[in-house]
Write a structure and sequence with these properties.
The complex is a heterodimer of chains A (268) and B (273). Chain A has helices at residues 18-28, 42-52, 81-86, 93-101, 144-150, 183-187, 224-229, 249-260, and strands spanning 9-11, 14-16, 35-38, 59-62, 66-67, 89-90, 108-111, 115-116, 122-123, 126-127, 136-137, 153-157, 194-198, 202-206, 213-218, 236-243. With 268 residues, chain A is an alpha/beta fold. In chain A, the strands form four sheets. In chain A, strands 6-5-4-3-7-12-13-14-15-16 form a ten-stranded mixed beta sheet, with helices on both faces. In chain A, a hairpin with a 3-residue loop joins strand 13 and strand 14 (202-206). Chain B has 273 residues and is an alpha/beta fold. Chain B folds into two domains: 3-102 and 157-266, Glutaconate Coenzyme A-transferase (3-Layer(aba) Sandwich), CATH 3.40.1080; 108-154, Defensin A-like. Chain B is built from nine helices and 13 strands. In chain B, a hairpin with a 4-residue loop joins strand 9 (160-169) and strand 10. In chain B, helix 2 (32-40) packs parallel to helix 3. Chain B is globular. The chains are: A alpha/beta (268), B alpha/beta (273). At the A-B interface, helix 3, strand 6, helix 4, strand 11 and helix 5 of A face helix 4, helix 5 and helix 8 of B. Chain A: This is Glutaconate CoA-transferase subunit B. Chain A: One of its GO terms (molecular function) is glutaconate CoA-transferase activity. Chain A: Its EC number is 2.8.3.12.
């Protein structure tokens, strides 16, 4: 992903960036006591923020096999020693996918990607030029296809711009709502799919019938035209458009403390 | 029955040109020293398998050891892209690299099938994705009981499976603990196996969550202290995060990479003994 969009919005005394708003919004969407399949980068930051604020009993599951990890600092990779040291249980990689993810035991899966389309399908494989001769080769699928399929619900967290929010994916790595409507059900995917897409501009949610992602909430200081301009398709806007609550002082301070525990920036 | 070997002897004996080789490790216990020894012995035309090819695979690919990569996520964890991997795929440098691409769940199950002596594994996976269009080892199968259509992936049985563990005893029994990924399946799926270990002990003390591979399931053991660096070995040393960051700079440039290859690997002392 590219550099953050710094909105530098201010409410009261608190100055925060659009990225911080996005991370806080993602954290807020994780219910206490639920289990969350976490990838590295922003999802891990958000999950750890949630565990330190409103959701102390959030169960963090990393695909390296750590169930119930409780890191006291942000891990740099999904297999850091701190995750194994603090986990309720450490299981093998076949077990994490076969016994824990596949049967739908995990409430929330957290995904990002290089591209998302209007039905919440995600590309993390190749950009441009076709699969055999790509312009940019990305890391690939990892755990994402089965997280997208089998978690009870999926949250997508991505920075919103016309390169990432595209009409047509260059490659379908993970399925959201397929071609829309009841396509996901027809494919036999068991989880509900991407129920929320959190961006640095606001929040998108699928239309109940068409499943097309619709702008339902705007971030502080963002207007509809900006959100539309950052979207590669003709973005639908909810009739009753809400707005996101800015981060509280506590959320911001905990988030910044967390980020300070890691020297490095977030991975793609 | 496992035999204790020096690392260079073990690689020379077990890994041949054109072999299918899996060096597994999921962030933890990555058999980096063994990978470097393969580069040093200038193996060619390997099919390399790994769920998470990271820095040591970038090095093997950049050194021209591989003609094919079987994988599910290729990146520098926490840092970004693998530049030698990208250069090989996008520009065929130093040699063209064919790929066979899966998801993690698919790769893990391919090893499970391989370890189980089955021709394929069944999973809920890949549905609706573009991966099956490009990967011949992904098909579908109907459940004989319910008729449900499920994904099938062919077994992965490498010629050589290589892993790193914390300890072996003098008889060649092996124990590893912490995040153990898909290493047990890799050894059991492979025709031949090499385990590098941090140390040889008189007696293995059972550890919580420890995985023990009995000596008769392993072909060769080599003591290589620090053999997983820059990844980590729980109970021995931490992950060297700076190395992963620095690799990004070295690997972006072919000349810098070539210099690194010459000085750090090819002209370097033989592997630690």
């Amino acid at each position: 992903m590219t550099a953050s969009v710094s909105a530098g919005t201010s409410t009261g005394d608190a100055e925060f960036t659009a990225d911080e708003m996005m991370t806080v919004a993602a954290a807020r969407s994780l219910g206490d006591g639920t289990a969350c399949f976490v990838g590295i980068g922003l999802p891990s930051t958000a999950a750890n923020l949630a565990r330190r604020t409103h959701a102390p009993d959030l169960v963090l599951i990393y695909e390296s096999g750590t169930l119930g990890a409780k890191p006291d600092q942000l891990p740099l990779s999904i297999g850091d020693g701190i995750l194994a040291d603090t986990a309720d249980s450490v299981v093998s990689v076949p077990e994490i996918f076969n016994y824990w993810l596949q049967p739908g035991r995990v409430e929330t899966g957290f995904l990002g990607g290089a591209q998302v389309d209007k039905y919440g399908n995600i590309n993390t494989t190749v950009i441009g030029g076709g699969y055999e001769d790509p312009k940019v080769r990305l890391p690939g699928a990892g755990g994402a296809p089965e997280i997208a399929a089998s978690c009870q619900q999926v949250l997508i967290v991505m920075r919103q711009n016309t390169r990432s929010f595209v009409e047509t994916l260059d490659f379908v790595t993970s399925v959201g709502y397929g071609s829309g409507g009841d396509d996901r059900e027809r494919l036999g995917l068991r989880g509900a799919g991407p129920v929320t897409v959190i961006t640095d501009m606001g929040v998108l949610e699928p239309d109940p019938d068409t499943r097309e992602l619709t702008l339902t909430r705007l971030g502080p200081g963002v207007d509809v035209e900006q959100a539309r301009a950052a979207t590669g398709w003709d973005l639908r806007v909810a009739d009753e458009l809400g707005s996101q609550h800015p981060p509280t002082e506590t959320e911001l301070s905990v988030l910044r403390e967390l980020k300070a525990t890691i020297e490095n920036g977030e991975s793609t | 029955m496992s035999r204790t070997r020096q690392l260079d002897e073990a690689v020379a004996e077990l890994v041949g040109d054109g072999d299918v080789v899996a060096l597994e490790g999921f962030t933890h216990l990555i058999p980096v020293a063994a990978g470097h020894e393969i580069i040093r012995q200038r193996r060619r035309d390997l099919t390399l398998c790994r769920m998470t090819p990271d820095v040591v695979y970038d090095q093997l690919i950049g050194a021209g050891c591989a003609s094919k990569l079987v994988f599910s996520w290729g990146g520098n964890p926490g840092v970004g892209s693998l530049h030698r991997f990208r250069d090989a795929i996008q520009r065929s440098w130093p040699v063209p690299l064919e790929i066979e691409e899966h998801s993690h769940a698919g790769m893990a199950n391919r090893y499970v099938a391989g370890a189980s002596g089955l021709p394929f594994a069944v999973l809920r996976g890949y549905t609706g994705t573009d991966l099956p269009k490009h990967t011949d080892s992904i098909k579908t199968v109907s459940c004989p009981f319910t008729g449900e259509e499920l994904a099938a992936v062919s077994a992965l049985n490498p010629d050589v499976g290589i892993i790193h563990a914390q300890q072996a005893d003098k008889q060649g029994n092996v124990q590893m603990w912490g995040i153990t990924g898909v290493q047990k399946e890799t050894v059991l799926a492979a025709k031949r196996s090499l385990v590098t270990v941090e140390e040889t002990v008189d007696e293995l003390v059972p550890r919580p969550g420890g995985v023990v591979l009995p000596k008769w399931a392993v072909t060769a053991v080599a003591e290589v202290p620090g053999g997983a660096r820059p990844s980590y070995a729980q109970g021995y040393y931490e992950r060297d995060n700076d190395y992963y960051q620095q690799w990004d700079l070295i690997s972006r440039d072919r000349e810098k990479f070539q210099q690194w290859l010459d000085t750090e690997i090819l002209d370097a002392e033989r592997s630690p003994r």
